[in-house]
Amino acid sequence: MRRAGYRLCCRPAAIDSLKGLLPVTIPFNRPVLAGRELEYIREAIDRGHLAGDGVYTERCQHWLAKYIGASAVLLTHSCTAALEMAAILVGIEQGDEVIMPSFTFVSTANAVVLRGGTPVFVDIRQDTLNIDEELVDAAITPRTKAIFPIHYAGVPAEMNRVNELAKRHNLFVVEDAAQALGSKYRGSYAGALGDLAAFSFHETKNIITGEGGALSINNPTLIERAEIIREKGTNRKKFFRGQIDKYTWVDLGSSFLPSELVAAFLFGQLEQIGPIQKDRIATWTMYDAALRPFHNRGLRTPTIPEHCVHNAHLYYLILPTCELRQELISRMKIEGITAPFHYVPLHSAPAGLRFARTSGQMTHTEDLSARLIRLPLYPRMGDAAQQVRDRLVRHLDQLL
Ligand SMILES: *Cc1c(COP(=O)(O)O)cnc(C)c1O
Question: Whole-prediction pTM value?
Fold first, then answer.
């Protein structure tokens, strides 16, 4: 008898009706090969040059500078390293202040603190979760040296206003463009919107190489010193160009350049930026179409200003309360889907309290960061994207 019942349950139609209820395993991110990465790594090895600044580093830098429309691009180990270079380049010293949002990754702030500077946090906009440009002016003091906006979720910050204030007060602008390769603001690519910009090729970003980054330079007066800082404070680059007959220690610096193996993998990815972005945008758009109908039940989805083009770096939801956010995260987890929250505001973190200060209230930063969750989003998700969407819609129907 039991056997018959068992058999009955296993009829294909019955299995179909169970689909969408059985646990799955869907990670938040999955790094994938996009094209010829392995071939290029082999070729780099065959060339017999594995240290930095070889053929693949040059190819990536040239590709990136042309794509972004920057004066120069230098590959680094990470976006963190690029931000550290930027802090040296703009001359952050003991007691200098840098204005930035508190809703960002630790590296934006650490780069400043490592130079002896003080991050000064301002609140974020409610719509894009980027720095509220209208709060920057009030945060400027005689010690302010720079503004470090970030482009959250690959949606550019209001750079016109930021640049206008920077110009008026003689400040540098460094974009934390870690999430924003391929995004545009009023027709210009992220990375070409300030004096300097830092990109990340960490495995969770759109274009990856495990750990990697780049510094984009739009202020040509900073290029030569950037090359020196990246090469341990030596004028090695000039030497290899044949501009001097021996190279020596001339400035501050560190080892910021990645190996050719990292650059070779990265070049394989950069070549495929078109298909990678297209795939991400398709998933992003599918999530968006299914979730917008919940707006009238208190759910918020990403806002893309009309003058911005985003790169589908991430899809987030803002629940009506922190409790609902926690409930949704656990329900998704039980089903095997990783849908995590994001930044813990830096001003409230132990190191933030120790090394930084705030300018004004952090109302939106505290409120929105407590209600936000991110959905799995990576290339070639296939069926997994529909699974996430369908399960999410079912839970939201019950919760909202
Ligand atoms: C990922 C990220 C970073 C750090 O990038 P790494 O390459 O891991 O150093 C910095 N800032 C922001 C906004 C990021 O999203």
Answer: 0.94
